[in-house]
Design brief:
By secondary structure, the chain is of the alpha/beta class. The protein has three domains: 341 residues, TIM Barrel (Alpha-Beta Barrel), CATH 3.20.20.300; 175 residues, Glycoside hydrolase family 3 C-terminal domain (Rossmann fold, 3-Layer(aba) Sandwich), CATH 3.40.50.1700; 114 residues, Sandwich (Immunoglobulin-like). Helix content is 28%, strand content 17%. The protein has 21 helices and 26 strands. The strands form seven sheets. Strands 11-16-15-14-12-13 form a six-stranded mixed β-sheet, sandwiched between helices. Strand 14, helix 20 and strand 15 form a beta-alpha-beta unit. Helix 3 packs antiparallel against helix 14 and helix 8 packs parallel to helix 10. The longest helix is centred in the middle third of the chain and has 17 residues. It is globular, with a radius of gyration of 27 Å. Bound molecules: 1-deoxynojirimycin. The site of 1-deoxynojirimycin has 6 residues, from loops. The site of 1-deoxynojirimycin (NOJ) has 6 residues, from loops.
Length: 743
């Protein structure tokens, strides 16, 4: 039976005092036990884990979402461990829990932090209702390599966009109060630089210079911290020879020291044990010591902390003060979540949102995640009332599970509405729908279904062709070297094209795919990512014109794998590419002598532009941008610079435009990107109307981590562009003056 750890007198004290009271009653083993996070996904977890829980060797439990099992595990901790400290239950709640929203990368295409916040809020409430109080999200790793399977889970290539959206997710998960009904703790991951793994191969080493780390990879972590993120997770990666989980410089130095994080840092799954595999530590004792001293508080799945920290403290190799600090962070989190005061709180207070409400938000999120990449001859929207026969073709047209995407453990496939069934309902009885998958799954190479698919296309006025990747082809450990559409999908597209009907392609995928060879076979192209449960209705809405697309790419689309990494915020180089400084491979004369004169940074076979640039996305409206009006030619530090631009919706439909502002710092102590997103606004603009959109910049927006590692702006000239994508051409320039001697 548990001792009473909290008396009435102690309960009346503040959290810090209550934490100290528990700590003072703990043995070294019990303190180390709080740092141990174990998996409960295999059969009979309460049987398997009972002895460890009773002995106080478990602080948190991952991957159990069945109410009876959660209650059994919690009972063991509360009633059968000496001190009765409750367990904390965690789960990867990445883009929804029971209700599945678009992939994080798809949500990023909405450029809508309010929506992202609400989606996280729903996911949190659904998870909390089962007893899960801690998610391992958001993943804010900047991702510039579409081969990397985890790009699906990312918020894209841009530090500013990922910062805004990552912060919104944190706010959504955590709500106003961690202890409030429906709130769960966020865990910002993977600290840091995981997305830069070599060759886009998961878990591979990274080589990130400090400037790049600070100016590209760290800003979203900083923003998530500012939004109040309670916990962080280390990365599996090796950064310039020092694995992230043993990286004292990054965790203690940068995150805790410079950024001021004093919450809980958890390792990734067995990443403390993997310090040995990396070749960084000799044995589990050393791995435990190095990780603890680097700033990791909780051990996910290696058991090195619980097995070795008590002895390391007794031997004087790890200080008891450090062990106390680590356990203190775990207990403080449990108090903040209300888990210690009411371990079953969310279970008995219920509070999962009604599925209909959750699905209605999932529908909105899916609509906003869709990016219209091509619409030749205005083939879209299709007026369904004018259609007599419509074909729906393709291996992803009717796959309720696949459309949910990666990282879906608890999603309900029965809540999915597929494109096929949504188009069928939208079309009603007045038209005939001809369905033929053509291929049974995305990697299918058999062409036996092509004849039926071609017949369906021939019998129809237009074709909706749903192609892409199955969910399992992206996500953790699911990287691809070839990012074209797999299987016989290119051949299917050619076959369908040959039927001579307008082809509207919808691509459902977990990453940007290389579309160069297939895109010519489409009249229209909607990029749907994996759009979640309500992908079908969202796709039907956009195709039929019930919704006007507004999504914009959160990541550049390469023409080919050979262009990777390709991102808009590249450095200029000493020989930047320009149209008259490139040559196509077919124009290089055979036997031509060696020359580089007048040449620039490009590929002979793919030039230097991506297939689709960052920030790009079409609408059924037409947005025309005027000139930038700028309030001053120069500003002093602290002074605002006002920028205004007139935007007109010259189309005949009301629409939403994501207005994007980019800058360039022309010369600095470190070279700066050719363009950097600094601000954006979602602007709703009725057909035929104009609006002046205003932005304000100060030197704080121009700041970066400088050569001496201090953070701030440097005086000098800046360019600014405003427009609908990263190639926006409305331009202005201004100067940032040096701070005057008077201050
Ligand atoms: C490993 C993944 O890298 C991490 O993101 C995830 O949260 C943990 N496994 C727990 O499932």
């Amino acid at each position: 039976m548990a001792d009473a750890i909290l008396t009435d007198e102690i309960n009346s004290m503040d959290i810090d005092a209550r934490v100290e009271s528990i700590l003072s009653q703990m043995t070294l083993e019990e303190k180390a036990g709080q740092l141990n996070s174990v998996d409960a996904s295999s059969p009979d977890p309460s049987g398997r884990l009972a002895d460890d829980i009773r002995a106080g060797r478990v602080g948190a439990v991952l991957n159990q979402v069945e109410l009876p099992e959660i209650c059994k595990l919690q009972y063991l901790a509360l009633e059968e461990s000496r001190l009765g400290v409750p367990l904390l239950f965690s789960r990867d709640v990445i883009h929804g829990f029971n209700t599945v929203f678009p992939l994080p990368l798809g949500q990023a295409a909405s450029w809508n932090p309010g929506l992202v916040r609400e989606a996280a809020r729903i996911a949190a409430a659904e998870a909390a209702a089962t007893g899960v109080r801690w998610t391992f999200a958001p993943m804010v790793d900047i991702s510039r390599d579409p081969r990397w399977g985890r790009i699906a889970e990312s918020l894209g290539e841009d530090p500013h966009l990922a910062s805004v959206l990552g912060a919104a997710m944190v706010e959504g998960f955590q709500g106003e109060e961690l202890s409030a009904p429906g709130s769960i703790a966020a865990c910002v991951k993977h600290f840091a630089g995981y997305g830069a793994s070599e060759g886009g191969r998961d878990y591979a080493a990274t080589s990130i210079p400090d400037n790049e780390m600070r100016n590209v990879y760290l800003p979203p972590f900083k923003a998530a911290l500012k939004a109040g993120a309670a916990t962080f997770m280390t990365s599996f990666g090796d950064i310039d020879g020092v694995p992230a989980t043993g990286n004292d410089y990054l965790i203690n130095g940068v995150l805790r020291g410079e950024m001021g994080f004093d919450g809980l840092m958890i390792s990734d799954w067995d990443s403390i044990g993997q310090l040995i595999v990396h070749g960084f530590c000799e044995n589990p004792e050393e791995a435990a010591r190095i990780a603890a001293q680097a700033g990791v508080d909780m051990d996910m799945m290696s058991s090195a902390f619980v097995d070795h920290l008590p002895a390391l403290v007794r031997q004087g190799l790890v200080s008891e003060a450090l062990l106390d600090e680590m356990a203190r962070r775990v207990l403080t989190l449990k108090f903040a979540l209300g888990v210690i005061d009411d371990p079953y709180a969310d279970i008995h207070r219920g509070g999962a949102p009604a599925p209909a409400d959750a699905l209605s938000l999932a529908h909105k999120a899916a609509v906003e995640s869709l990016v219209l990449l091509k619409n030749e001859g205005g083939v879209l929207p299709l007026d369904f009332s004018e259609i007599d026969n419509l074909a729906v073709i393709g291996p992803l047209a009717d796959q309720p599970v696949e459309q949910m995407g990666t990282w879906v453990f608890d999603g309900r496939a029965e809540r999915s509405i597929t494109p096929l069934s949504a188009v069928r309902s939208a079309l009603g009885d007045q038209a005939q729908l001809h369905f033929a998958p053509g291929l049974t799954h995305s990697r299918d190479n058999s062409q036996t279904g092509f004849a039926d698919a071609a017949a369906a296309a021939r019998a129809s006025d237009a074709v909706i062709l749903c192609l892409g990747e199955e969910a399992i082809l992206s996500g953790e450990a699911h990287c691809r070297a070839d990012i074209t559409l797999p299987g016989a999908q290119l051949d299917l597209a050619k076959t369908i094209r040959a039927a001579g009907k307008p082809v509207i392609a919808v691509i459902l995928a977990g990453r940007p795919l290389a579309l160069t060879h297939i895109e010519p076979y489409f009249d229209a192209l909607i990029y749907a990512w994996h759009p979640g449960n309500m992908g079908g209705p969202a796709i039907a809405d956009v195709i039929s014109g019930a919704a006007n697309p507004s999504g914009k790419l959160p990541v550049s689309f390469p023409k080919s794998v050979g262009q990777i990494p390709i991102h808009y915020n590249r450095k200029n180089s000493g020989r930047p590419a320009e149209p008259d400084k490139v040559i196509a491979i077919e124009d290089v004369p055979v036997g031509a002598p060696q020359t580089s004169l007048g040449m620039s940074s490009f590929h002979l076979d793919d030039g230097y532009e991506p297939f689709y640039p960052f920030g790009f996305g079409l609408s059924y409206s037409k947005f025309a941008y005027g000139h930038i009006q700028i309030s001053a030619q120069s500003i002093a530090p602290g002074e605002p610079l006002e920028l205004a631009i007139d935007i007109t919706n010259s189309g005949d439909r009301d629409g939403v435009e994501i207005v994007q502002l980019y800058i360039r710092d022309r010369a600095a102590s470190l070279t700066r990107p050719v363009r950097e997103l600094k601000a954006f606004q979602r602007v709703e603009l009725p057909a035929g109307e104009s609006r002046t959109v205003r932005f304000v910049l100060t030197d704080a927006d121009l700041a970066f981590s400088r050569r001496d590692k201090s953070f701030g702006a440097e005086p000098g000239g800046f360019d600014v562009w405003i427009g609908g994508d990263s190639q926006a051409d409305a331009h202005a320039a201004f100067e940032l003056c040096a701070r005057s001697a008077a201050g």
